[in-house]
């Protein structure tokens, strides 16, 4: 199933899962994770969510990998609200979110132009007892439509002792360009760090 998913053959991956069920092979969490991931890679967010929700009835316990693949499927399908909902439901399901969970939901907000929600998620990452990654900062800077917000995130990135990469800086510069603002302190701050 993983090979099918990696090859873009989500239908074949689901077919293999059905064959396992017909042969009473009792697919486990790894089997469902592979099938959900195949759906995610194939842009089939509805099927990914359906598999995730049916796992308990089929005696398989959804885990963080299952949820991460479903969140990523929602991102690829432009379903930012569902991606955020899945992330926020993890603690109530006794599943600890990880950086992939957060970054996938953040990417969903970015892809759909939901920059304010992206900043809310970005701000909540520490509340989930997680550390923001460089990817988190890049996604937040990419998402924002306000040069002030972009530089606030860039400042936090510098405070966290990450070095801004070319992508991060060019995104910040672009936000200034859209706003018609001069770019002085962020470049100096980057040089000083």
UniProtKB/TrEMBL annotation:
Keyword tags: Repeat, Signal
InterPro entries, alphabetized: PPR_rpt (IPR002885), TPR-like_helical_dom_sf (IPR011990)
PPR repeat extents: 28-62, 98-132
Cleaved signal peptide residues: 1-15
Name of this chain's protein: Pentatricopeptide repeat-containing protein, chloroplastic
């Amino acid at each position: 199933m993983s090979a099918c998913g990696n090859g873009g053959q989500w239908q074949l991956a689901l077919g293999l899962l059905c064959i396992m069920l017909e042969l009473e092979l009792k697919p486990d969490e790894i089997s469902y994770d592979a099938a959900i991931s195949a759906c995610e890679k194939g842009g089939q967010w509805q099927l990914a969510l359906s598999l995730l929700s049916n796992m308990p009835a089929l005696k398989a316990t959804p885990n963080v990998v299952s949820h991460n693949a479903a969140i990523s499927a929602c991102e690829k399908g432009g379903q930012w609200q569902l991606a955020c909902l899945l992330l926020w439901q993890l603690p109530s399901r006794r599943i600890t979110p990880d950086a992939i969970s957060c970054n996938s939901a953040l990417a969903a907000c970015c892809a759909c132009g939901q920059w304010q929600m992206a900043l809310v998620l970005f701000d909540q990452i520490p509340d989930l007892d997680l550390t923001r990654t460089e990817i988190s900062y890049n996604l937040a800077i990419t998402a924002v439509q306000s040069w002030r917000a972009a530089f606030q995130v860039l400042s936090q990135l510098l405070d966290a002792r990450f070095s801004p990469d070319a992508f991060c800086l060019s995104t910040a510069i672009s936000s200034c360009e859209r706003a018609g603002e001069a770019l002085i302190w962020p470049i100096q701050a980057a040089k000083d760090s």
